[in-house]
Amino acid sequence: MISVPAQYQGLRSFAFGDGPQLADELLDLVIRGVKTATCSTEDEPNASKPGERWIVRDGRGTPACVIETTEVTYRRFPEVDAAFAYEEGEGDRSLVYWRSAHRTYFGRQGKFREDMMLMCERFRLVEVFTDHTTDLSVPSPLVGEGQGGG
Prior knowledge:
alpha+beta, Sulfate adenylyltransferase, globular
């Protein structure tokens, strides 16, 4: 069992995506430094602010790493640009891929609208808990199949 270091105890935590496999895939991208941004619907109860740190859990709910929010902006779906899509790190990192994947992802949640408002967050990786550097079940077809995941 992974023990959360004392300096991070009490932080809020979450897992990326909407299921265990996607959570592991997106976490792997974060740990490898590929994913440095994420988005969610504007009504997401876990809104963040710059400087806030979060524990990211894997698909089993185990604490895996700590990230720190560096920027939060609100944009409508069509206003998300290629730079942000690239920083999300999914698929081929293109805006075309990002739009397709996020239409699918938010559609699964019943929330997708072409003009929906998104909370777009950039973050940096602070620390990886050592047991998680090789413990993820990746690769999987989800990241390459337009599944998206915030």
